[in-house]
Specification:
- The protein is of the alpha+beta class and about 700 residues long.
- The protein has four domains: about 180 residues, ATPase, nucleotide binding domain (Nucleotidyltransferase, domain 5), CATH 3.30.420; about 140 residues, Rossmann fold (3-Layer(aba) Sandwich); about 90 residues, no CATH class; about 120 residues, Dna Ligase, domain 1, CATH 3.30.1490.
- It is built from 17 helices and 34 strands.
- The strands form nine sheets. The protein has an eight-stranded mixed sheet with strand order 19-14-13-22-23-34-33-30, sandwiched between helices. Strands 3-2-1-4-11-12 form a six-stranded mixed sheet. It has a four-stranded parallel sheet with strand order 6-5-9-10, with helices on both faces.
- It is globular and about 80 Å long.
- It starts with a strand and ends with a strand.
């Protein structure tokens, strides 16, 4: 039997989901920040051992390895990317710093701007100008380009972003600059804006290109190292990498634009959530993923997790490529608890995996959320924790909370409980902001909780948000890794084109869509997929005149690649009707007497691949199992002797009534007082109020 492996690297743990026929085997091991590919290979070795195979034999039997990673995210969080320079059009040196006047908190006069990836001394301009119609107003000054390269060389730049005005309609100047950089700065990576984000406006394109240049060397180096280790280990197929858009593609495609893997780990969880929700009859989901470092929130509506290309702010930088919308808080198991200015603060600073929470016994000294759960009795310190592969220790935890409590005038246990309350409040407020921005009431959604810590907080979150039902997949500890196996190989790209919707240049649209289709066909062919397997959704970006942002919608979904028969004289009228419907759904109003304008074309393509099967429905009969043990724990209503169930003992139809704790491999499910958890036919949990 052959295998498919999904991998997700987080800040604390590296997660694995092994698809073996209809069975899913999960595994976790600590991430290795010094070289994350080592953690991947260690985990694959553990999976091979579970299958009774050598690593070489195991990898030889892997049909696919699909990888989601936070390498790009961590580079931005830690600000340890490449020394990056920018060459741009004369007069546009400081555009990247103006940020369109955007400020995350307009009321905070002390809010500092984000740290500059390209400080002003490394932002250089050259005389050149291309106009919106692709004509050259001012030729490229090649001598100025060479002088800029020499100045950047003196600053030891490792990567250069090039962003010229209107390069997306005429890229000749940018392509020539790449040639000159190759001559003047050999070995330096180059990111061209017309390749990274070929559309207006210029700030979006420049910001995305600069971030791409900043993360590219680290991402490229990591992927090359991992591909090398896999190849030496015996893997013979192409490594597939998760994209922020929710699809996967080959390393070759990703290395052309590494920015596409930013937030790819969380995207895998959202794609997996949509797959599970649809199978279980819940198309509208609030997806919450609490791991060791962060708490990720996203929405699945009508069974889909659409990727949006536009004003995507990540780590305070604008990223214009298509991304599944995921909002992130610094609230995870490793989030550090401290008193700041007399107030208790939990996160966003994290202990990560090195040294990790105090309970890991790896040298951590600052109390974290995980340590608080140990103090509250929610997490076990027994030898069998995490399937026996990992043991939490109480040594040092109580003194740390005693010190924290002394600063607040409370006991150690009360300090731990206060940390639990604060992190819950932070997460609830984060969900309210996320849903309110979409005009959605959380109580109308089903919560799907995953990640190593998500199920420990899910019932409390649902109670605070008036959510009636919570789904917890059996594979929730490695759900983002499982999601990478659900994701399809995909290519999602766009091109700029500005025209009134009632005066479209149909030949121009055909040309742009044909160009995108040819690119998609090439990359799918490199992945051994034929054009007949590709499903193409032709899309338009449109807005009303004067609007800053465009809306994207399908104009011809589910077609064959290169099928442009829909581009006819009625295209403009259909586009106006579909855009108005999309605008009404998004903003609840339309300008019915105005003609909208097309700002670009987009082509989203994918190929279907085997996905993990998901069973639907609850068991025909129910019963109440006996707990395996009990322990003193505080589930929000004070300490009490609390029954503890082992996930390995529970069968479909079993109902656990709170207050109770269920210990699954690599995660702990808290069933709050007044709630119950039923095991369905797939072994997944459905939590509802007991009444």
């Amino acid at each position: 039997m052959n295998y498919r492996v999904g991998i997700d690297i987080g800040g604390t743990f590296t997660d694995f989901a092994l698809l073996k026929g209809a069975d899913v085997i999960v595994h976790k091991n600590l991430s290795t920040p010094q070289d994350r590919s080592l953690g991947v290979m260690e985990g694959l070795g553990s999976l091979a051992q579970k299958e009774g195979l050598s690593l070489t034999d195991f990898l030889a039997r892997c049909d696919a390895i699909v990888h989601g990673t936070t390498v790009a995210d961590n580079t931005l969080i830690e600000m340890d990317g490449a020394v990056t320079g920018l060459i741009t059009t004369e007069g546009f040196r400081d555009e990247i710093e103006y940020r369109r006047g955007f400020k995350e908190d307009i009321w905070d006069v002390r809010l500092a701007p984000p740290k500059q990836i390209t400080p002003r001394r490394r932002r250089l301009t050259v005389p050149e100008r291309v106009l919106h119609d692709a004509s050259v107003h001012k030729p490229l000054d090649e001598a100025a380009v060479r002088e800029a390269c020499r100045k950047l060389a003196k600053q030891d730049v490792e990567s250069v972003a090039v962003s010229f005005l209107f390069s997306f309609v005429n890229s000749a100047h940018e392509r020539r600059v790449r040639e000159i950089i190759g001559e003047e700065l050999p070995g330096v990576q180059v990111s061209l804006s017309h390749e990274v984000l070929p559309r207006a406006p210029e700030y979006d394109r420049t910001s995305t290109t600069v971030v791409n240049a900043y993360v590219a060397p680290r991402v490229t180096s990591y992927l090359e190292q991992l591909v090398m280790r896999l190849s030496r280990g015996g893997y013979r197929n192409q490594l597939m990498v998760m994209q922020a858009s929710g699809g996967v593609m080959t390393v070759d495609y990703i290395q052309g634009s590494p920015i596409r893997i930013l937030a790819s780990g969380p995207a895998g969880g959202v794609v997996g959530s949509a797959h599970v929700g649809a199978a279980k009859g819940h198309p509208n989901l609030l997806c919450v993923d609490m791991g060791g470092t962060s708490y990720d929130m996203s929405l699945v509506l009508n069974g889909a997790a659409p990727a949006e290309a536009g004003w995507n702010m990540h780590h305070r930088y604008l990223i214009g490529v298509p991304m599944v919308k995921v909002e992130t808080l610094g609230a995870g198991g490793g989030s550090i608890c401290q008193v700041n200015g007399g107030a208790l603060q939990v996160g966003p600073r994290s202990a990560g995996s090195e040294p990790g929470p105090i309970a890991y016994g790896r040298g951590g000294t600052e109390p974290t959320v995980t340590d608080a759960l140990v103090m509250l009795g929610i997490l076990s310190t027994d030898e069998g924790f995490a399937g026996g592969s990992f043991t939490l220790k109480r040594d040092g935890v109580e003194p740390a909370f005693a010190q924290l409590g002394a600063a607040m005038g409370t006991s150690a246990e009360q300090a731990a409980f206060d940390c639990w309350r604060v992190v819950n409040a932070n997460m609830s407020q984060g969900v309210r902001r996320t849903t309110a921005g979409k005009g959605i009431d959380p109580k109308d959604l089903v919560m799907l909780a995953y990640g190593g810590n998500g199920p420990a907080f899910a019932a409390t979150q649902a109670e605070e948000l008036s959510i009636a039902k919570v789904l917890i997949p059996k594979a929730s500890p490695t759900f983002s890794a499982l999601g990478t196996l659900v994701a399809n190989p995909s290519v999602d790209e766009e091109r700029s084109c500005l025209a009134r919707a009632d005066a479209l240049d149909l030949d121009k649209l055909r040309s742009l869509w044909s160009e995108l289709a040819a690119r998609a066909e090439k990359f799918f062919a490199d992945s051994s997929f034929s054009p007949d397997e590709v499903v193409a959704s032709y899309q338009l970006n449109m807005r009303y005149a004067g609007q800053n942002f465009s809306l994207t919608f399908d104009i011809a979904p589910g077609r064959k690649l290169h099928d442009l028969s829909f581009v006819d004289d009625e295209l403009g009228a259909r586009a106006i009707a579909l855009f108005n419907a999309r605008h009404m759904a998004e903003y609840n109003h339309i300008r019915e007497y105005e003609v909208p304008e097309v700002t670009g074309v987009r082509l989203a393509t994918h190929v279907g691949t085997p996905s993990p099967a998901v069973s639907q429905g609850l068991a025909a009969s129910i019963s109440n199992p006996a707990p395996a043990k009990s322990r003193r724990a505080n589930l929000g209503q004070g300490f009490a002797d609390t029954p503890v169930f082992l996930g390995t003992d529970l069968q479909p139809g079993h109902v656990v009534t709170g207050p109770a704790i269920v210990e699954e491999t690599f995660t702990t499910i808290v069933v709050n007082p007044g709630w119950q958890a039923m095991v369905d036919v797939a072994g997944d949990y459905e939590m509802t109020r007991a009444d």
